């Protein structure tokens, strides 16, 4: 458990001290410098340096979480140690990178992108000229969803390359296994089903952007905080995890 005390997530350090956790990391985008910043709390952490990406040791708090989740334009920036931050997905071009740098050998990545079938990929979700909601949804997906899929492809290709190299030529490279979990339903379509329950003023805004003109309003799914919708997401996540429980267990127990 995270166990928040005066804003600090004290459960992180408790589990580190107990040996159940090596490190925890959370990323945000600095509006002051434009860099992707990853805050890390852990023992014996070796920091790394990459272009436009900066790791920092920190005691992770609610403020760090709020900064990482502050969707630009829709949620206010968050002040952390005198600098302003927003959503961590804006500039984090390699979302799997922090876990790899911290020594992970197996990664479970949870994506919010629904795994479409080949026929669904060819299906048009709009008729006529694209409404602003459709354009915004595509733009946001390119920022927050596409990067994980691209990074997963790079990781798998790197694993294949490492397998082809003799052990004495691998230097510090190591294979990192990846399991990606995805929702069993299209979150955009689900959000559209709950749009009628939004406050009237907010519903006026979203429909003015054309959310009813697309069959999968992905833009709406990113800003929808309707309690019934969130509960439906939680329940679906639990069902999806239970359906793949054997696969997850086998992945975690593999030597």
What does this structure look like?
It is a single chain. This protein has 255 residues and is α/β, with parallel strands linked by helices. It is built from eleven helices and nine strands. A five-stranded mixed beta sheet has the order 5-4-3-7-6. Strands 1-2 form a two-stranded antiparallel sheet. A two-stranded parallel ribbon has the order 8-9. The two termini are 27 Å apart.
Secondary structure topology:
Layout: E1 4-5, E2 8-9, H1 10-17, E3 23-30, E4 36-42, E5 53-57, H2 62-68, E6 78-80, E7 83-86, H3 97-101, E8 106-110, H4 118-121, H5 132-144, H6 146-164, E9 177-181, H7 187-194, H8 200-208, H9 218-223, H10 227-243, H11 245-253
Parallel strand pairs: 4-5, 8-9
Antiparallel strand pairs: 1-2, 3-4, 3-7, 6-7
Task: Supply database-style keywords.
11 helices, alpha/beta, two-stranded antiparallel ribbon, 16% strand
What is the tally of helical segments? Answer: 11
Please report which band the strand proportion falls in: under 5%, 5-15%, 15-25%, 25-35%, 35-45% or over 45%: 15-25%
Low-confidence segments: none
What shape does the CA trace take?
globular
Could you report the average pLDDT, rounded to the nearest whole number? 86
Query: What does the largest sheet look like?
Result: 5 strands, mixed
Query: What strand line-up does the widest sheet have?
Result: 5-4-3-7-6
State Rg: 20 Å
Fraction of residues in H or I helices: 40-55%
Q: Give the termini distance in whole angstroms.
A: 27 Å
Write the H/E string, N to C.
Answer: EEHEEEHEEHEHHHEHHHHH
How many DSSP-defined strands?
9
Structural class category: alpha/beta
């Amino acid at each position: 458990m995270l166990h928040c005390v005066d804003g600090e997530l004290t459960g992180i350090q408790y589990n580190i001290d107990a040996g159940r956790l090596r490190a925890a990391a959370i990323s945000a985008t600095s509006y002051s410098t434009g860099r992707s910043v990853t805050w890390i709390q852990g023992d014996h952490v070796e920091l790394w340096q990459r272009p436009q990406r900066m790791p920092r040791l920190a005691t992770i708090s609610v403020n760090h979480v709020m900064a990482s989740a502050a969707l630009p334009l829709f949620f206010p920036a968050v002040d952390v140690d005198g600098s302003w931050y927003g959503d961590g997905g804006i500039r984090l071009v390699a979302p799997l990178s922090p876990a790899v740098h911290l020594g992970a050998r197996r990664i479970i990545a949870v994506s919010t992108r629904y795994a479409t079938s080949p026929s669904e990929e060819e299906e048009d979700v709009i008729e006529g000229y694209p409404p602003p909601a459709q354009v915004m949804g595509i733009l946001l997906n390119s920022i927050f969803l596409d990067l994980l899929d691209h990074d997963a492809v790079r990781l798998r290709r790197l694993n294949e390359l490492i397998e082809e190299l003799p052990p004495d030529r691998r230097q510090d490279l190591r294979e990192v296994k990846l399991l990606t979990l995805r929702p069993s339903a299209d979150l955009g379509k689900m959000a559209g089903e709950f749009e009628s329950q939004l406050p009237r003023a907010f519903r006026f805004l979203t429909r003015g952007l054309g959310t009813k003109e697309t069959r999968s309003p992905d833009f709406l799914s990113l800003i929808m905080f309707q309690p019934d919708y969130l509960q439906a997401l939680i329940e679906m996540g639990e069902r999806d995890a239970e359906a793949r429980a054997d696969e997850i267990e086998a992945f975690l127990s593999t030597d």
